[in-house]
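Protocol step 4 of 6: record predicted structures for both targets in the notebook before any analysis. Target 1:
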Amino acid sequence: MILSLDGASAYPFFFCSLSHVGYPTMKCCSSYLPFVAIVAIGTVGCHADRSYSAGPGAMIVDANHDNGNVFFVWLPPLLGQQAPAGQVFSRQLGPMVTITNLCTGAIIRTLAGLDVQVESSDYQTNWHTADDNLDASCTYRITAMAGSRQLGVADVDVVDSGSELKNVNTGEFIPLLVDRTLPIKFFIGVGSQCQRVDSDCGEGTVQPGQSTTIVTTHGQAGVFVPAGAVDQPVTLIIESADDRPCIPGLPEPVFPGDIGAVGNSCYDFHTEPPLALVNTSGKFNTNVTVGICPVIGTLDHATSDLLQIFQLHVGADPAIRALNNVPAPFLHCDPGYATLGSRGSSPRRSLLGALAVRLRSLVTPRPLFASTRVAIDLGAGGSTDMFSRFSWALPSQLDLNFDQTPELGSILPGATVNSVYSRLGITFSRTNPLGLCPGTAVYANNYGVLGFNSGQNNISVCPLGLASDFNELSFGKIKATFVVPAVQACITATPTGFHTIFPLSGGVAFIEALDANGNVLGRTESTTDGVPQQLCVSGAGIAAVQFAGKGSAYAIFDNLRWTRVLPPSP
């Protein structure tokens, strides 16, 4: 007697009496019964009235056969086996199943898109064999793919001129439904698309017309892809990387985390096929948000808030670039979801975390299991138009133009900017709150050389409606204080002369560097030319800079650059 497959009780089998074995004309599977069966070569059963060829290279390939992908398993009724314990179902992929006639090499059926249904813990599609006029002398190969990867193979032969099939490799019956339909079920675990089985992996298929969020198994990295970012469906893969340094040439301090699947902050993001084959530009049509949980150890709060995700931009012109910080509400990097108080300080929520909370409704986060050494309370990410390798580091340079917030929002003319850039480690104050335009506020003022509403904000001690130029004698200086000491600071200055009854040209602007005790480390002055000039001061341990028009000479200021580490000399 032939035993049924494990887990296939919903598809009854039909058996031939052993007394009929050897009688090739015997039809032992009655047509009036509700099911027909599939048997394998070598099984004692219904061979009907023909001999069978297993075809070229007949095989089964999955996690349990022929060294197949460890994250892919054929399920009943095709094979009597279960999904592997401990794996996470990869439900965001868009797998495709093809049926190939091995006699001719032709693909006779492709099942994809809506034909492949996502169940609670497996994928399922139906092959209506009656529609394909199967050849009883040929072997047919069922292939499952996701992205550009072949995940599984199962070969079957036709029995009884197409009314039955059999598995050519295992020797097991596989049932068909009464309408000669073969339910094809399979499990794909998260990790099927990654290169290493021991990495923290995330994967999914991105469709052009819908937004997609993908998070890795351990919840340490993820991506949000808005609708319209791709022109065609594409498989997106996230995988932790164990190379150290993570990004060669990235200035210290860097925070790549540990090697391995847990506590890693070095990740590769890529698509299959590559974006160059998906979008005409070779980039995403709309920026995507990359999120990684930083492993930052005992780094203090003020410095941790300055961290940025850096990207190794590969291609004809390799470069390292810092990503604009944006919230990544799809990650919960602190297991407590809330506090930065795990190092003995009182619990509080960082600005980055607060932003993430407000935007959490963008996606529905899944349960995450980030390292307990992660200190940023909610996911923080970066905005990019392409994929490569990403990791966390302290930025070596920051540029402020007073038209945008750190989150790339607009700064309206007239807004105070004293603490707008505090997350970047820079705050602004005034040395003489009792001078002209009195008060402590530092403003973004668009009353510049071209007059009111010039189209760009300058930094000024005067509010909107008054000219943005100022001098140290009547107004005082603007002071920029850095949380992390700088080695260089630059600002764009435009001398505007002397405001007398009869305006006079001439006069200079200046910037001077201060150490932590307020001592002047260096000073640079402009020329008297009334054109924009970049003024820079350099030195070790610059804790602050201050600037103004010299004496009673007026000047306009914009575009502050703060540099922590100078780039290497070419």
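Target 2:
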Amino acid sequence: MRLQPAARPTAPDVKAGWADDNAQYNRYLGYLGQFSSLDALKLDVADRIVFTVRDSAGRSVPNCDLTVRSSAGEVLCRRRTYADGRAMFFPRELPGRSRRPLKVEARWGREELAQSLELQDRQNIELRFAAGRGVIQRAPLDVAFIIDTTGSMADEIERLRRTLEAIHYQVTQMSPRPDVRFAMVLYRDRGDEYVTRATPFTGDIRHFAGQLKSVAAAGGGDYPEDIHEALRVAAKDLNWRPGATKLAFLLGDAPPHLDYGQQFTYLDFMRVAAERGIKVTAIGASGLDDRGEYVFRQLSQYTMGMFVFLTYGEHGQTRPESPTGVSHHTGDNWVSLNLDAIIVQAIARELSYLADRPAEAIEAGEDYFQASAADGIDSKVVLETLFADCARQLVDFSQARLEAGTAAAVVAAPADGCPAALSRSLGDQLSLAISRQKCFKLVERDDLKSVLDEVDMNWAFDTTAPAAARPPGALPLPAKLLVLYRLRSTGDQYQMFVKLVRVQTGEILSASMLKIDRRLTG
């Protein structure tokens, strides 16, 4: 019989923000460069290949085993796909080895696929099986919490304990209810009452709730903690189910000790997690310093998780004027929510990929920049701010690294029900904003005209076609990147769709949508 709490626990008001460094990949690479002098273990993730595995119906294939091999058949890395069917490979992890030609092999059930890789070509590879997986009604879900319980966490442990109780309850009440198990690894430091204390995975809700109630903070004389041992226990000692959706949540306010000479470090944990399909969300509590943020973000980015940061009790680093507190170095692209809501939404999103309509389909197209006319504010200023936000988003969210001074061109697709002169005018303002980004060096449009006359740019805005349905890479374009835009008239607004495209492969690297009040263009 399934036991559960009699009443829903109330989560305390623990505000937090989150950032997805894989969505803001180019910005993340800039962050790593900015803080490269920090005393942390380094891993070169500047180039990556994202694999997406789908079934015959286009549904994601979770827990698919991927193997990347050299031309000689040597195994270079192993991966297991997450619930959304994705996994990542970083070629620069292979120092001193030939990076090409390579081959990726995918194994799922009785099917096997193989595909050659040219690392200078596409950075997004889709593998599709002939079989269908169907809808998973009773999804197995393993959730592990890895928690710093040293004395510096004393003020937050009670809030976090009650938050975890609320998360635990909400997950067990999801519909359809997953086949959920919880585990917990508490950690401190050498010389304390314990270094780690683990609660193995269990589906017994009452037992796990009892373990949560016993969590208390003590010990920890210096600032760093023995996170390496906690991660080793989480990876090696917890009995993760191979076929489950596997999520780990690391909560702490300090970086790991790097002076203990341990053989298993957080870099080893990252690789093991990626090989086994464990997605890590690292949560920085108040007091987490730059080194701790660096490590926590490494853990999350490599395993395709989120970096979460509590926003109370601190002074902002990138937004000191923000009343919500610290945002660390993630930029402005975050929203403050209650911590339990962030974690429950992350879990629900993972489970949604196993349903008919995943979260990525539900949320598509909801993000946009809005520019409205207002009394006393110059329209030129409003539009300048709008296009500056658009240019910054294209850069931050680029799915490939953008080198400084990369040749780029701003190109208009045929306007949809809008005056051509208006499209050109707004395109000029977009070009100005793009030119102010250091990573772009604009190519004059006249240099492109003879080539672009041959190109139908509608492919980039066809949502029913693959991302690279009409790659322009075969054309002798004098630009490596295209900023494509299309203007459309709708009601009392103009909508402007903007996409950053890699010429060599036709891949859409990032996108932005703008909604512009008609009164601003009068």
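Step 5 preliminary note on target 2. The two ends are 68 Å apart (CA to CA). The chain has eleven helices and 21 strands.
Proceed to step 6 after PI sign-off.
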